[in-house]
Amino acid sequence: MSVVERQEWDVVVIGAGGAGLRAAIEARERGARTAVICKSLFGKAHTVMAEGGIAAAMGNVNSGDNWQVHFRDTMRGGKFLNQWRMAELHAREAPDRVWELETWGALFDRTKDGRISQRNFGGHEYPRLAHVGDRTGLELIRTLQQKIVALQQEDHKETGDYESRLKVFQECTVTRVLKDGGRVCGVFGYERESGRFFVLEAPAVVIATGGIGKSFKVTSNSWEYTGDGHALALLAGAPLLNMEFVQFHPTGMVWPPSVKGILVTESVRGDGGVLRNSEGERFMFDYVPDVFKEKYAESEEEGDRWYEDPDHNRRPPELLPRDEVARAINSEVKAGRGSPHGGVFLDVSTRMPAETIRRRLPSMYHQFKELADVDITAEAMEVGPTCHYVMGGIAVESDTAAARGVPGLFAAGEVAGGMHGSNRLGGNSLSDLLVFGRRAGQHAAAYTAGLSGARPPVDDIEVDTAAAEALRPFSAEGPEPGLEAGRPPENPYTLHQELQQAMNDLVGIIRREGEMEQALEKLSDLRVRARRAGVEGHRQFNPGWHLALDLRNMLLVSECVARAALERTESRGGHTREDHPTMDRDWRRINLLCRLSDPTGGPETWDPVVGQIALTRETTEAIRPDLLALFDKEELVKYLAEEELYE
Ligand code: FAD
Questions:
Q1: What is the pLDDT of residues 570-583, one digit of tens each?
Q2: Phi and psi (nearest 5°) for 102?
Q3: Cβ distance 437 to 19 under 8 Å?
Q4: Which of 164, 205, 208, 509 could make a disulfide contact with 248, Cβ separation 3.0–4.6 Å?
Q5: CA 617 to ligand 1 center in whole angstroms
Q6: Continuous H helices in 472-615
Q7: What pTM value is reported for the model?
Q8: Is ATP-binding included in the keywords of this UniProt record (predicted)?
Q9: Pocket of ligand 1 from Cβ distances under 6 Å
Q10: ipTM of the predicted structure?
Q11: Would you say 183 and 172 are in contact if contact means Cβ atoms under 8 Å apart?
């Protein structure tokens, strides 16, 4: 039996991004002793990288805005596959969450009359993104951290211990959610520096681990985003929803190669930046799909006038939802009209004075100056699509953020599915984190408080199994059951690179049936080899070991993406099939759910040749009539299936 340190908490939150911190604050404020665990340093989550802003219909810049308009935009952006109740709660509650942040000390940019300023973003009808230059995520995280410290100071006054009710375990990775029977009873993890194992016992666990981008080669995501939370939920028995929807942000850096994929914020376009091809054409005017035609300018002149007079002009097509812009860029490059390094040109230099660019887009200015030696106040940037965000995620109950089918498990933020349908609008993630982070914390605390009888215990056998799984990469060499014996260990870095290349090339921005079948074969090969992913040395300071453990998660999640993408024979939002290029109204009624085919085992007992994911279809819940009434019938006809319209 392994000797593993154990602690008891009421609620454990995995992840210290916006969703995790907001959940932790809420749980602690509702009386639950709460632990937060994060893979990197406290404060260095993806949320801190968010640039453009938080979408909330506060109506500060255009009084026409309200939650109903925000709801409509979100549903249109997600092509009506959104879990509508989540989209409703999000649109209604986002303004309160932003105002609340301000009361906790956030300093947003202001309008001339002193209100929180809001900027334009793709797919949002009105200027809606509350922002702090292009460093909004930094301010959001700073504020939430400050709130956590304030709560810890309160606790210190009462108990003499800052961490008595709210404690952050940084640079620790969770590898398993533990269960007793069907219910959650804690988590198993390790400290990244020392490799020491630990168990936090708790009846309620909130997963807030963010995205999956590191399974793709070109991505805006940083090293942590290996789909851990998605995999933890699957392994605990919860289904993942609509994993085929992966957002390729249209504008990542394409040059130099070392920074390929790093994000160029949508604010560049929101503030007037335009996209041009190698022939100098503003090509986006050629790519406005029928469903959006009425809402977008037909000429450059009209598009330009919109920035000054949005009430009498339509917005430029550079501000179409991200999926549309990413596909358009992809087509231009394919047609031979790309920039020298395989992207297109994004220009603000001819649209704003240099001083304004430096003030409104300070991070972009520095990013290009330092990483590419490009002065964006004087020349255009080269940009192209980059894997950015996953709309698919853990299937949750809309109101409570409870993961389906696993009592005690909750999920919020990017790791949760449903909210954004098939495509997320920019700015809707930061608001999602706050709205559903808060709800997850609230319901996790209530769940623990409402338990009658003894708490579910953590079984030693479960702990031993989790420890053995984590130690496997140190003894990878040797015979494989049913496979060739005595083969040498595989290098986890090589496996990771091959996985990223396969996902990028075969399940990327434009998908084809044959290629996705090839991807599934490649995944099978990688799973077989990952059984022998081996590392040398010991548990202290061993990044190769960390990656070997992350591979399990990336392989599981990639299989979900590939299987679901193969199954959905239409194009919608972040899922584009070259062989099924149009949106099919009948598919709007269908969610795809991924579950483990053998929930009792783990990678050490599964046959690695055979896929682990079972895919099922589920009919989506009918949209509530009063919400449908917010749209024109003519618009609904474009999205809803015949029988839904009839209903
Ligand atoms: P994250 O902030 O990603 O945090 C995840 C946490 O989980 C981290 O603390 C990580 O260490 C931890 N974790 C992961 N796995 C484990 C594990 N196994 N064990 C323990 N801890 C773990 N959205 C907007 O709305 N507006 C924007 O302007 C915007 N700009 C963006 C710019 C960039 C460059 C990027 C990459 C994203 C941007 N987004 C934006 C998207 C948005 O930032 C993310 O979707 C959002 O921050 C995700 O927040 P989260 O709380 O779900 O997770």
A1: 999 999 999 999 99
A2: -65, -40
A3: yes
A4: 509
A5: 29
A6: 492-506, 513-530, 543-567
A7: 0.94
A8: no
A9: 14-20, 37-40, 45-47, 49-53, 136-137, 173-174, 208-210, 220-221, 224, 228-229, 263, 389, 413-415, 426-430, 433
A10: 0.99
A11: no
